[in-house]
Each structure stands twice: as structure tokens, then as C-alpha cells.
Amino acid sequence: MEEETVYINPKQFDRILKRRTTRDKLGWEARRVRKAYDHESRHNHAMRRPRGPRGRFLTAEELATQK
């Protein structure tokens, strides 16, 4: 396969190289690890909200028709 030339902003090139070296130092596994959620309070609020049959949040209209 031929590699296509990728044009980048020359002002950003140093930062791109620095980011690449940082990623290489971390290793593949360290980059793949992610927390389930970032904010505990937002997670708790979402867990209390009513949901529809497929798991999506119900709108105010849908809640009114249920009651």
C-alpha cells in the first residue's frame, strides 16, 4: 500500500511529536484504561432519572403521560 502524504500545520509539529513520544512511553494498556464516568454527582443524578423501555431517558411529556 502506498502511504499518502499528510500535510500538517508546521507550528503544531513539535507538539505532535511530543504527544507521540508521551504515548509511546505510556504503552498500549495504559492508554486503553478509562474510568466508567468522570463525575460522581452526574452519574448519581442519571441513575435516578426515569428511563424508557430501551434505557433512554424519558422526556417531560412522556413522564406526564405515564402519570
UniProtKB/TrEMBL annotation:
Gene3D superfamilies: 6.10.250.2430. It is found in: Nucleus. The keyword Transcription applies. Component of the sequence-specific heterotrimeric transcription factor (NF-Y) which specifically recognizes a 5'-CCAAT-3' box motif found in the promoters of its target genes. PROSITE patterns: NFYA_HAP2_2 (PS51152). One of its GO terms (cellular component) is nucleus. Keywords: DNA-binding, Nucleus, Transcription, Transcription regulation. SMART domains: CBF. The keyword Transcription applies. This is Transcriptional activator HAP2. Heterotrimer. Belongs to the NFYA/HAP2 subunit family. It comes from Parathielavia hyrcaniae. It holds the Pfam family CBFB_NFYA. It comes from the Eukaryota. One of its GO terms (molecular function) is DNA binding. InterPro entries: NFYA.
